[in-house]
Amino acid sequence: MTQKTLTRISLVGAAALVLTSCASMYSSEQEPTHTPAPVVVETPTPATPPSSLPKPGTNPLPDPLPPMKLAEAKEDFIRRTSAKFGVDADYIRGVLNQAEKRDSIIALMSKPAETSKTWAEYRPIFITPARISGGKKFIAENLADLQRVEAAYGVPKEIITAIMGVETGWGANMGKTNVVDALYTLGFFYPRSGDPAKADREARREAFFRNEFMELFAMGKRERMDITKLQGSYAGAMGLGQFMPSSYMELAVDGDGDGRADLFNSKRDAMASIANYFVKRGGWVRGGTVTLRATRDDNAKDITPESLDPVYTVQQLADRGFRPLIPVTATAKANIFRLDGVNGPEYWYSFQNFYAITRYNISKHYGMATYELSREIAK
To answer: Helix, strand or coil for residue 315?
Structure first.
């Protein structure tokens, strides 16, 4: 590993040292038989009175693009991409002329599993004996590298392993969709539901994917890749960790010291980049709790969080009738979310590290699947 890379990793790892000793992410969720000391989730902060609960932060998407005919939109894309990233305009035009709109991608984007399935239906897809044994095998085969990344960034090796297992089966399936076609389809033909309440978000999502398409050209230039040959997911995610182009540009790091970040072929690069993503994009707290099961009082006041940001204190949530099975410091910050499990509704706390997992994929189901897989792998 180069000195430059070591310096970059050590700085990121140092930034992650927010806490020294907190509850393990593998804390038991069962009702305790005694009264343990409260779990300290993060540095205490003054509680906000329940009457003025803070609003979660938003995850803004780009502004909608102005209406344009397809030919005009393409020329606008060419101009903006060339000007921003210094990519030859004729090359961009040539790639666009080869790109294909794929109806199969539109169909998949219209009904992703994270939103169309309940937790009871979603969980068995990812928490399987094969995936658990595969995770254990991956750790055994890459233990030294995973330990180095965990020490540098503070992200447990089981979480990194679970992400790679959920995303690509540790490289066995990195996607078979042409990335140019995926981003072209979603960036210029994002599906519309016809629901007026969803129109603004759908327009913003199209702008997001068009921006990602621009970033793909920048990535190809920087990493000296032929982007027309790249294969990934139907949403344009790529490599062992399934990074979108903008995430690749911002967060991919050189973990093996060869001078470049190759998330397609280097497991060391992928492991370090996933950890870097958690720290920089999700604010991962070294040693922090991920989630805990909560009870709900019969007369609990409903909470409908706008996101999983940990913006409430545990005391505020208790005042609303939601209490952790394991005592938690009253001033710790969290959020609450509901899962429809096999035996009915389940309520869970979203601490900073659960929020960090969902920055990888903004879905409570994805967050729980990754967390539970990591726990099974760790056994």
So the answer is: helix
> For residue 291, what are the β-bridge partners?
350
Residue 167 annotated as catalytic = yes
> Can you give the pTM of this predicted structure?
0.81
What are the structural domains, with CATH classification, of the chain? Answer: 3-59+285-378 (1.10.530), 70-119+173-282 (1.10.8.350)
Judged by average pLDDT, the poorest of 60-64, 102-106, 149-153, 322-326 is 60-64
Region of residue 269 (left: phi > 0; alpha: psi -120 to 50; beta: else): alpha
pLDDT at 334 over 60: yes
* Catalytic residue selected from 42, 158, 167, 212: 167
Q: Which helix (H) or strand (E) holds 298?
A: none
What is the C-alpha separation between 332 and 130, in angstroms, rounded? 36
d(CA 116, CA 220) in angstroms, rounded, equals 34
Angle among Cα 83, 88, 90 to the nearest 5 degrees reads: 115
Q: Phi then psi for 259, rounded to 5 degrees?
A: 90, 0
CB atoms within 10 A of CB 93: 15
CB 84 within 8 A of CB 214: yes
Phi and psi (nearest 5°) for 44?
-60, 145
Q: Token pair for residue 59?
A: 């995850």
